[in-house]
Amino acid sequence: MKKAAWLIVIVLLLLSLSLFLVRERKSGPAGESNTVVTTIYPLYFITRKIAGDALTVKRLIKPGSEIHSFSPTPVDMVELDRADLLITLGRDLEPWTEKLAAATKVEVLPLEKRLVLIETGRRGKGEEHDAHHHHGGVNPHVWLDFDNDIRMVQAIESKLARIYPEKKDLFEANAKALQRAFEELKESYRSGLSRCSKETILVGHDAFGYLGKAYRFKSESIMGVFAHSRPDAARIAALSRMIREKQLHYLFTDPIESSKSASQLAADMNLTLASLYTVGNISLKNENRGEDMLSLLRFDLKQLRKGLECH
What we know:
By secondary structure, the protein is an alpha/beta fold. It folds into two domains: 24-188, 3-Layer(aba) Sandwich (Rossmann fold), CATH 3.40.50.1980; 193-307, Rossmann fold (3-Layer(aba) Sandwich), CATH 3.40.50.1980. 47% of the residues lie in helices and 10% in strands. It has helices at residues 2-26, 41-51, 74-82, 96-102, 146-163, 168-192, 209-215, 233-246, 260-268, 284-288, 293-307; strands at 35-38, 56-59, 85-88, 107-110, 200-203, 218-221, 250-253, 272-275. It has a four-stranded parallel sheet with strand order 2-1-3-4, sandwiched between helices. The protein has a two-stranded parallel sheet with strand order 5-6. Helix 2 packs across helix 5 (146-163) and helix 2 packs across helix 6. The longest helix is centred in the first third of the chain and has 25 residues, at 2-26. The chain is globular.
């Protein structure tokens, strides 16, 4: 018994010492851990592309997870405390990150003030009470505006260069390459969606407002801005009329989400279910196949051309 008690005491002392060292390291100069943490997948993708192999980039929201219902774990808190920087969209788009950052000593880079935001097209049932995930009527799917992506690239590159000045040239070169990729994507969407017979697509949830505004199409959604919201009978009836009037043939949903409402409506209205990625996260299956934010967005363009009957 005495031996067991001493082992417990030793383990507790070692644990306390480890936590003390973590806190001590974080009180030192910035850039000591070479670790940056992001929230959603698009921020992770952009940061990794800029950092290359020079930094360790981690994400709080793991592949396949639903981004609108995320809650951090104790392990996440420990990783944050060890990191040099946490990159978020900001308090209006990710309010939960405020308390997260306050509980640690990590420096935070919020991006929303650098972005152009639009209002949500509509609210789904119960969404007016979902302030845990974003405030007001702001559409949180900011990464589906390629100009916003470029703004995020610039802001992240600038911040990383200040924290890790010895790697500034690498970050700058990588950021320029990534900006070019988003510029090329913009041009592909502009030319690919310039001549279309239809102006409306039907989607699972209201995630495509930014793309619709930039490329002049409308997206009617079964759910509201959050994938976990549910439509009421009046909404389903209105959608059924709209589908007949506009002669729509597809219902686009993100493969990472599951929606019985979407499957049922597709069956009832003789629609073909088709994939359209919202890119807020990526599945482990997609990631293991070597796909990323850019490749999924290129796939989305093909799907949009199909749904809008472009030529």
